[in-house]
Amino acid sequence: MPIVVETGLPDHLIILHRIAARLHLLSGRLDAAQGVLAQLHDIGARRGIRRLSAAAWLDRGYIALRNGDINLARRALALGSDPALWRSFGDFKPYASEIEDPLIAELRVRLALGQNDEALPQLDATLQAAELAGRRRRALRLLFLRAQMLEGQGRSREASAAFEKAIMGAVRGGMVRNLTDEAWAIETLGKRATFVADPRVAPLWRALMPAPCAQNNDIKRPAADAPPSVAFHLTNREVQVLRLLWKGGSNKAIARDLFLSENTIETHLRRIYEKLGTRNRTQAAAIAREAGAI
User: Please, is 259 exposed, middle or buried when counting C-beta atoms within 10 Å of its C-beta (0-12, 13-18, 19+)?
Assistant: First the structure.
C-alpha cells in the first residue's frame, strides 16, 4: 500500500481505496470504510490531485446512501462534483470513473428521493450515449438504475423488461458486482422476476436478494437547504471545537476558550472524527472547512 500511495496513478489509487472501503462496508465496518476514504482524500490533498479528493467524496456519498442518510449523501455529491474538474477531462473517460462519476452518483440520489420523473430523461440520454460508445459496464449499470426508476413510476412491465435485460447482461458478461453495487429498490422487481430458476442467474440472485440497500422508506429525508453542519450531524459544540481546531488551537487552548476540560475536548474530537470519517485533527479540520461546515 505505501508504494502505491506515493507512486500510483490516480485510477489505481481510486480503485484500490474504493474496493477497500466497500469491503469494509459489506463487513459492517463503517468506521474502517470511512477511514479508507479519508486516506484517499488526504493523498489527493498532499499530492495536489483534486480528482482523488473528489472520488473520496463521491464514495462517501455512496456509503451515506447505503446507511439511509440522504442529507449527507447530497452534501458529499456536491463536494465531489466540481464541474470544472470533471469538464477538464473532455472526451477522455478515466477508467476509475467509468461507473462511478458525479452523474451516476446524482442518479442514485434521485432514485432514493423518488425523483424519477425528473431523472429518467437524463438517464435515458446517458444510457443511449454509453451504448453507442460501446461502454458496456456503464450502460449495464445505467440500465439497472433505469429499471428501478421505472418501477418507482409504476411502469411495471417496462421495469421488469429492463431488470431482466440487466440481469442477463451481467450474467453473460461476468459483471455481477456491477449490479449488486446499485441494488437500491429491487424488492418488488425481484418478486415478479420469471427467470429465477435459470441456474446461470443463481449466483447473482443470491448476491442481490436481499441486497444491502436502503429502501426509499428508510431514507432520512433532508430539510430544505440543510447547512453542512447538519449534513454531518455536528452539534453546535462540535462546530465550535472544529473552528478553534482550524485556527491551530491545541486541546488545552480549545478547552480554555470554551471553558471545558481537556478530557471533554478529547471526547468531542473522537465524535467529530467518527462523523467526518477521519482519524486525526488535521484531516478533520480540512474536511469540515472544505465542506463549509466551519
Answer: exposed
Spatial contact of 160 and 122, defined as CB atoms under 8 Å apart = no
In a domain, 133, yes or no: yes
Same structural domain for residues 118 and 187? yes
Chain-centre distance for alpha carbon 139: 19
Predicted confidence (pLDDT) per residue in 221-233, tens digit: 444 455 555 556 7
Q: With respect to residue 151, please indicate whether it lies within any of the assigned structural domains.
A: yes
- Tell me the per-residue pLDDT of 6-30, one tens digit each, with 9 for 90 and over: 677 899 999 999 999 999 988 888 8
End-to-end CA distance of the chain, in Å? 32
Q: CA-CA distance, 186 to 165, in Å (whole number)?
A: 14
* Burial (CB count within 10 angstroms: exposed 0-12, middle 13-18, buried 19+), residue 83: exposed
Per DSSP, the three-state class of 220 is strand
Both 123 and 216 in a single domain? yes
**Whether residue 238 sits in one domain with residue 208:** no
Residue written as grid cell 438504475:
145
- Could you tell me the pTM of the whole model? 0.72
Find cell 476558550 and name the residue: 257
Q: Kindly tell me the burial class for residue 252, based on how many C-beta atoms sit within 10 Å of its own C-beta (0-12, 13-18, 19 or more).
A: exposed
